[in-house]
Amino acid sequence: MTKPEITIYTVPNCADCEAVKHLLTRQGAAFTEKNVRGDPAALQEMQRRAGVRIAPVTIIGDQAFYGLFDHQRPRILAALERS
Fold first, then answer.
1. Most buried of 28, 50, 52, 68, CB within 10 angstroms?
2. Nearby residues of 70 by Cβ (< 8 Å), 6 or more positions away
3. Structural domain that includes position 61
4. Digits of tens for pLDDT over the chain (83 positions)?
């Protein structure tokens, strides 16, 4: 089974963004980070993939996770475990 692609859409100085990146790193998950504040194309991509305009957005395969890190942490861990 191949591991799904992971992308995290972030903005600078965002505690939740940093928390997601730290979690993924601790889990040994390779990910691509895209800063949506300085990259309009990344912002449009995030909106298309997740339907929201707020960072962080974490995409694991075809699943999108967004909102407060504390609420998303269990879902992100479960998605990583399934992959």
1. 50
2. none
3. 6-82
4. 578 899 999 999 999 999 999 999 999 999 999 999 999 999 999 999 999 999 999 999 999 999 889 999 999 999 999 87
